[in-house]
């Protein structure tokens, strides 16, 4: 079980998307969960990314400030995630 940094709900790891900060400082979405570096988890929902941005949850998780272009890149990558019809 992992906790979404946006909505703070506990969910199985397979239901969440890992956001990773590589040792070089590059931040990206890790769909396979295998990239090296510090990870934080988000629901596959743009609203959770927006909540994480507003509360600075990802910045706290990575102990670093994220520039606007990183947020824009994460938002663009999140839009490409297929949404499950529930």
Class by SSE composition: alpha+beta
Globally, the shape reads globular
Q: Main β-sheet: number of strands, strand sense, barrel status?
A: 3 strands, antiparallel
Question: How many helices in DSSP terms?
Answer: 3
According to DSSP, the number of beta strands is 5
CATH architecture: 2-Layer Sandwich
H and E string: EEEEEHHH
CATH superfamily: YlxR-like
CATH-defined topology: Hypothetical Cytosolic Protein, Chain: A
Query: What's the CATH class label?
Result: Alpha Beta
**Gyration radius over CA:** 12 Å
Low-pLDDT residue intervals, each spanning 5 or more residues: none
Order of strands, main sheet, comes to: 4-3-5
Q: Determine the mean pLDDT.
A: 89
Strand content: 15-25%
N-C termini distance? 20 Å
Q: Percentage of helical residues?
A: 25-40%
Tally of domains: 1
| Quaternary class | single chain
Describe it for me?
With about 90 residues, the protein is of the alpha+beta class. The protein has a single domain (about 1-80), classed as YlxR-like (Hypothetical Cytosolic Protein, Chain: A), CATH 3.30.1230.10. It is built from 3 helices and 5 strands. The chain has helices spanning about 45-55, 55-60, 70-80, and strands spanning about 1-5, 10, 15-20, 25-30, 40. The strands form 2 sheets. Strands 4-3-5 form a 3-stranded antiparallel sheet. Strand 1 and strand 2 (about 10) form a beta hairpin. The longest helix has 12 residues, at about 70-80. It starts with a strand and ends in a 7-residue tail after the last helix. The model has no long low-confidence stretch (mean pLDDT about 90).
């Amino acid at each position: 079980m992992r906790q979404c940094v946006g909505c703070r709900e506990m969910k199985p790891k397979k239901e969440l998307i890992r956001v990773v900060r590589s040792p070089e400082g590059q931040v990206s979405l890790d769909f396979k969960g295998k990239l090296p570096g510090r990870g934080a988890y988000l629901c596959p929902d743009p609203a959770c990314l927006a909540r994480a941005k507003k509360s600075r949850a990802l910045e706290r998780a990575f102990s670093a400030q994220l520039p606007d272009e990183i947020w824009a890149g994460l938002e663009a990558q999140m839009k490409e995630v297929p949404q499950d019809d529930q």
